[in-house]
Model the fold of this input.
Amino acid sequence: MAKITLSNLRHSYSANPSGPEDYALKSIDLDWQDGGAYALLGPSGCGKSTLLNIISGLLVPSQGRILFDGKDVTDLAPDQRNIAQVFQFPVIYDTMTVRNNLAFPLRNRGVPEAKIAERVAEIAGMLDVEDMLDTRAAHLSPDNKQKISMGRGLVRDDVNVVMFDEPLTVIDPHLKWKLRSKLKELHQRVRATMIYVTHDQTEALTFADQVVVMQDGEVVQIGTPVELFERPQHTFVGHFIGSPGMNVLPVVEESGGVRFEGHPIALEGAIAGQGGKTAIGIRPEFVTLSDAGLPARVRKVSDVGRHSVVEAMVGDTSVKAVVEGEVPLQGAPVHLAFRQDQTRLYRNDWIATEAAS
Done:
């Protein structure tokens, strides 16, 4: 396995890019440690697949270098990078048995048959497919086909990195959780460097130790699932991660503090910088209905099972709160309280308050 370093990486599909808007990847510097589980998370068009294709060698970046364990591989072809890739759609041979599908990447490299048999048995055990080793792949269900596709990526023990490109897209929702759990288990057992590309926050947060959140060709935050939820460094991260996403509420700065719809708001810590577009961010989980606080009126109540999401209007601005137990009726007057250590100022979308001590 390998440590992967991306240094000053930029890429444009235009022959003569003239500005940032011409770049699919604007500027990326990353280190992925050997044996780690990482996710690239972001909406369609944010640059995830471009970055994955650059790492795999299908694209040569316009600028910057890619290193595996310190070795520059930027100009190497895909077959010289020693990687395995699992795609959205299962890449297997329907006319072959499961056993031969798993063995194929090893036979293609001249591995001795005894070693192949040992490795195939090991991977089949990890995937819980021992009872279907002699079944033709054409007869498998879609989730089992994707299991075999994953197994083909994992069967080699000499790869630098295993990359998963939206591998659960075609899987039925009720089966996704099984494959997510299996993939996490596989990583813990084989400790291969794995990069998982997805637009689905649940897939990213349940698989990865570190999540790279991308927007418009830029990395806006790298962190653990807990870090991304508890302290978003950018409003996009707060909005994209969480259900519902973070409240992002426009405010006016004055006298070293801020006002929201005319009301003073207590922040987690001191404010950094000045000028620019300002907003406060607070997750609905840290907004409570109280006897005192911001006067509001309930606009809508959504029962989502374990709790309800109350949407209330403070002046002309909507604020969401996660509420357990009894909820007010639509149109009822309420007061909202923001938990101070979870209320942060964002300046031009980037965090601008010191963390609560």
